[in-house]
Design brief:
transport, two-stranded parallel sheet, single chain, 4-stranded antiparallel β-sheet, about 450 residues, about 65% helix, transmembrane, Outer membrane efflux proteins (OEP), alpha+beta, cell outer membrane, TolC-like, 8 strands
C-alpha cells in the first residue's frame, strides 16, 4: 500500500510540475513555430514544391510501358495470328512494350526544372518570412504580459503604502492631530487603488490568454510565463542612418526576396510559353506479339516468336495553327511578368517606407522612455517631499494622495515606455537583418 501511495505522489508531483510550467520567451517562440497552423501550411507548400521539382526531373526520363490482353472470341472474329475471319470459338492473347523519349520540346523541360527550383525558393522565403512574423508577434504578446505584470507590481506596492498610511492617519485622527476628513480621503484612495489593482489583474489574465491562444495552448488557467528583468539591448542600431538600414533590409528582408523571385518565376513562364511555339521531336520504340489457340501447328512459345513485331522511329510535331493559344499564352505571361516587376518595385518602396517608419518609431520611443525616466525621478522626489510634509501635518491627505497618484502613474508610464522601446528596437533590428533567434531581450 505504501508503494502505491509513493507512486501516486510521484505522478501527482510530475503532473503538477508540468501544469505549473513557466514559459520563457524562447520556449514560447519555439512553441509557436512548431504549432502555428499557417507555418504548418507553409511547410506543406515547401513539400509540394519538392514534388513539382521531382515532376520536372521526371520529364527528362524516357517513358516505358507494357500491355497485355486475353480474350475469348465467339462468333465472327478475326484471328490475330492469321488475320483471317473465323466463326469458331477461340482464345487469343496479345502483349507488348512501348518506350518513348522526347529529344526536343523547345527546351520546355529544361526550363520547367529551373522554374521548379524558383518555386521551391519562393516557398522557402515565404516560410522564413512567416516564421519571423510569428516570432515577432509572440515577442510582442510576451512583452505585453510582462508590462501588465510590472504595472500590477507597482499598484500593489503603492497600495501597501496606502494601507500603512491609513493606520498612520487613524492614529493621528484618534489623537486629535488630524481631521477625520484626512482618514476618509486616504480610505477613498485605498478603494480606488483596489479597483485599479483588480483591473490590472484582469489585464494580466487577458494578455496571458491572448498569448496562450497564439501558442495554441488551451489550458488557460495554468498557463504562465517566466518573469525576468528584460533589459534594453540593440540601441547601437540607432547610430546607423535610415539609408544604411534600408540598404541592408533590401538584401536581407524576405518581402523583397519574394517579389524578386516572383519576377523570376514570371519571366521563366514567358520562356516556357514561347517553347510551345517550337517543334517537338520524339523517339519511339515498340515491340508486340500475339497468340491464338486457332494455330494448332505451333506451341505457345513458338507463336510468340513467330508473331512478334518491332516498330521504331522519330515523330516530329510542328505547330502551325492552334487557335492563337500559344501566342496568347505568351502574351498573357508577359503581362504577368510586367505585373511582377511592378510588384517588386512596390515591395522595395514599401520596405523603404516601413524602415523609415520603424526608425522614427524607435527614436520616438527612446525619447518617450527618457522623458518617462525623468518624470519618475521628479515625481519620486515630489512624492518623498510630500510624504515628509504630510507626516508632520503640513499638507492634508488629499494633496498627499494626489502626489502619490502622480508617482504611481509615472512608474506605469515608464514601464509602458520601456517595453514599447524594446519592441520597436527589435523591429528595427529585424529590418537590418538580425535573425530572430539572435535578438536579445
Amino acid at each position: 500500500m505504501k508503494n502505491y501511495l509513493f507512486i501516486f505522489l510521484l505522478v501527482f508531483a510530475g503532473v503538477s510540475g508540468f501544469a505549473q510550467q513557466k514559459w520563457t520567451l524562447q520556449e514560447c517562440i519555439q512553441r509557436a513555430l512548431d504549432e502555428n497552423i499557417q507555418i504548418r501550411q507553409a511547410e506543406l507548400d515547401l513539400e509540394g514544391a519538392a514534388i513539382d521539382r521531382s515532376d520536372a526531373i521526371g520529364n527528362f526520363l524516357p517513358s516505358f510501358n507494357a500491355n497485355s490482353s486475353v480474350s475469348k472470341n465467339t462468333g465472327l472474329n478475326f484471328d490475330p495470328t492469321s488475320n483471317l475471319a473465323t466463326t469458331t470459338q477461340f482464345l487469343s492473347a496479345s502483349g507488348g512494350i512501348n518506350a518513348g523519349y522526347t529529344l526536343f520540346d523547345g527546351l520546355r523541360n529544361f526550363k520547367q526544372i529551373q522554374r521548379a527550383k524558383l518555386t521551391a525558393l519562393s516557398a522557402q522565403y515565404g516560410l522564413e518570412k512567416l516564421q519571423d512574423d510569428i516570432a515577432l508577434t509572440v515577442a510582442n504578446g510576451y512583452l505585453q504580459v510582462i508590462l501588465n505584470k510590472e504595472n500590477l507590481k507597482v499598484l500593489r506596492s503603492q497600495n501597501e503604502v496606502t494601507r500603512r498610511q491609513i493606520e498612520q492617519t487613524r492614529e493621528l485622527v484618534d489623537g486629535g492631530v488630524s481631521p477625520r476628513g484626512d482618514l476618509l480621503e486616504v480610505q477613498a484612495q485605498n478603494a480606488t487603488e483596489i479597483q485599479n489593482i483588480t483591473a490590472a489583474e484582469n489585464a494580466v489574465q487577458i494578455s496571458l490568454i491572448s498569448l496562450a491562444q497564439t501558442l495554441l495552448i488551451r489550458d488557460y488557467k495554468t498557463f504562465d510565463i517566466a518573469e525576468g528583468d528584460f533589459n534594453i539591448y540593440g540601441e547601437e542600431i540607432l547610430a546607423l542612418s535610415p539609408e544604411k538600414i534600408t540598404e541592408s533590409a533590401k538584401e536581407e528582408r524576405y518581402e523583397v526576396r519574394i517579389a524578386e523571385n516572383n519576377l523570376d518565376l514570371a519571366e521563366k513562364d514567358v520562356e516556357i510559353a514561347k517553347g510551345a511555339k517550337l517543334p517537338t521531336l520524339d523517339a519511339f520504340f515498340g515491340y508486340s506479339t500475339r497468340y491464338s489457340e486457332q494455330d494448332i501447328q505451333n506451341t505457345f512459345q513458338e507463336q510468340l516468336y513467330l508473331n512478334d513485331g518491332i516498330s521504331y522511329g522519330l515523330r516530329l510535331n510542328i505547330p502551325i495553327l492552334n487557335g492563337f493559344q500559344a501566342r496568347n499564352n505568351v502574351q498573357r505571361n508577359k503581362i504577368a511578368a510586367e505585373r511582377a516587376a511592378i510588384n517588386l518595385e512596390q515591395a522595395q518602396l514599401d520596405l523603404e517606407s516601413n524602415v523609415y517608419q520603424a526608425y522614427l518609431d524607435a527614436q520616438g520611443a527612446l525619447k518617450t522612455f527618457e522623458a518617462a525616466e525623468s518624470a519618475v525621478e521628479s515625481q519620486e522626489l515630489a512624492y518623498s517631499y510630500a510624504k515628509d510634509r504630510y507626516d508632520v501635518g503640513l499638507i492634508n491627505a488629499f494633496d498627499f494622495s494626489q502626489s502619490k497618484q502622480r508617482y504611481d502613474n509615472a512608474q506605469i508610464d515608464l514601464n509602458r515606455a520601456k517595453y514599447d522601446y524594446i519592441f520597436k528596437l527589435k523591429v528595427l533590428e529585424l529590418y537590418f537583418g538580425v535573425p530572430v533567434d539572435q535578438l536579445k531581450f
